[in-house]
Specification:
The protein contains three helices and nine strands. With about 150 residues, the chain is an alpha+beta fold. The longest helix is centred in the C-terminal third of the chain and has 10 residues, at about 100-105.
């Protein structure tokens, strides 16, 4: 977080609670030594792990497996000048255990673009940060709404 920016810092539990409410986020990774951002649908596993489901042959899997990535999701209401943003940073790994894969087929995220050979990618929540702005008010008590 940035000091004195007017947002309220969210704790880990608040962040995970908010993440569970939205279906789409963005994965941030490196692509040819440059930052890349890709919107994805996701779900959370019981321990707060971010789960993605995608084609086994996708470029995304090749780009992120074994790498540290960031995952961001948010919800913003421009009319009320309020919202939140959560970032999960951690290692991304493809689920290779067959029993775990079968469990996730039943309980994990559904692919919006199903393919014959799908894999699940886990992002371990090593660092979870979030911030919130409520109704255009800052930590300084100033009403910023017009």
């Amino acid at each position: 977080m940035y000091a004195n920016d007017g947002f309220r810092e969210l704790n880990r539990q608040e962040c995970l609670h908010l993440l569970a409410k939205v279906p789409v986020g963005r994965i941030v990774h490196t692509h040819h030594a440059l930052p890349a951002v890709l919107p994805v649908n996701f779900s959370l596993d019981g321990d707060g792990t971010v789960l993605l489901r995608t084609s086994a042959s996708s470029e995304l899997v090749r780009a992120i497996h074994g790498s540290v990535v960031a995952f961001e999701a948010d919800q913003v209401d421009a009319d009320t000048q309020s919202g939140w943003s959560v970032v999960v940073t951690g290692a991304a790994t493809v689920v290779t255990d067959s029993a775990e894969h079968e469990r996730l087929v039943r309980t994990g995220p559904r692919s919006w673009v199903p393919t014959p050979h799908e894999v699940f990618v886990r992002i371990a929540p090593e660092l979870v940060t979030g911030r919130e702005l409520v109704g255009g008010r800052t930590l300084y008590g100033l009403d910023l709404a017009p």
